[in-house]
Amino acid sequence: VPLIDIKNNAFDRTLFDLILLIRKNPNLVDSRTTRMLIEVAELHRKHLGGQLLFGPDGLLHIVLGDGMITLDDMEEMDGLSDFTGSVLRVDVDTDCCTAPYSIPRNNPYFNSTNQPPEIFAHGLHDPGRCAVDRHHTDNNGSLLILCTDASGRNASAGRILAITKGKDYENEASIIDLATSGGAAPVGGFIYRGCQSRRLYGSYVFGDKNGNLRILQKGSAAARDQWQEKALCLGTSSSCGSALVGHILGFGEDQLGEVYILATSKSMAQSHSGKLYKLVDPKRPAVPKECQRQVEAPELLGTACSRQCKNGHCTPTGKCCCSTGWEGPFCRVAKCEPACRNGGVCVEPHNCLCKSGYSGAQCEKGEQGMPSDQEKDGILDHIIDMTSYLLNLTSYMV
Question: Which of 227, 327, 353, 355 has a Cα-to-Cα distance from 366 of 20 to 30 A?
Answer without folding.
Answer: 327
